[in-house]
Design brief:
This protein has 176 residues and is α+β, with helices and mostly antiparallel strands. It has a domain at 8-101 and 153-170. It is 44% helix and 21% strand. The protein has five helices and eight strands. The protein has helices spanning 8-33, 47-59, 64-72, 90-100, 153-170, and strands at 41-44, 73-78, 85-87, 103-104, 112-119, 124-128, 133-136, 146-150. Strands 1, 2, 3, 4, 5, 6, 7 and 8 form an eight-stranded antiparallel β-sheet that branches.
């Protein structure tokens, strides 16, 4: 992916790269896998998403990279890439945070974060307040242990992009 500074333009390019790969995958999906694909998309932020992004910004939670993301992208749903990959909408993230409170991450410098993504197997991705992305080792947050998945949101998003491209090209995918 071209080296642009992380911004709405970077996110647009990121989305285009993944959409191009998904279009290639969809052309032969049913023939390859024997069933119809689900909806695989990176949805551009709509009005409701932008309201949620403004709510996120007012809360002073987390970090600016996530706000930039939610001002551009509504959500990511890639159920047919490996065992799935989902970056939750701003509203879903805020609702979960309100209902369950912040996630305690003993391995993080900031110790607290919020669930922003998951895979189809229940693994959760938590952004700490400093912007580092952590991957749960299990599908539960009860006494969860985490591994560092990415040092920043752009790195995490680029890993998603590479994962999609690898899946389309080889049919294999690694962990995020």
């Amino acid at each position: 992916m071209e080296q642009l500074a992380y911004s709405a333009a970077w996110l647009s390019r990121w989305r285009d790269d993944i959409t191009d790969a998904l279009n290639s995958m969809m052309a032969t999906f049913e023939e390859t896998y024997g069933y119809e694909p689900d909806v695989n998309e990176i949805r551009i932020a709509g009005e409701e998403d932008l309201r949620a992004a403004r709510d996120y910004g007012r809360e002073g939670l987390g970090f600016g990279e996530l706000l930039t993301f939610y001002e551009s992208i509504g959500e990511v749903t890639l159920p047919d890439v490996g065992n799935g990959c989902f970056v939750h909408s701003a509203r879903a993230v805020l609702d979960r945070l309100a209902a369950e409170g912040p996630v305690f991450i003993p391995e993080a410098d900031d110790f607290q974060g919020m669930v922003i993504a998951s895979d189809g197997g229940g693994i959760l991705y938590v952004a700490d307040w400093g912007g580092v992305i952590h991957r749960s080792r299990t599908a539960s947050l009860d006494d969860a242990e985490f591994d560092r998945a990415a040092d920043s949101l752009p790195e995490f998003l680029d890993r998603i992009r590479r994962r999609v491209v690898r899946w389309v090209e080889t049919g294999t995918v690694g962990d995020l």
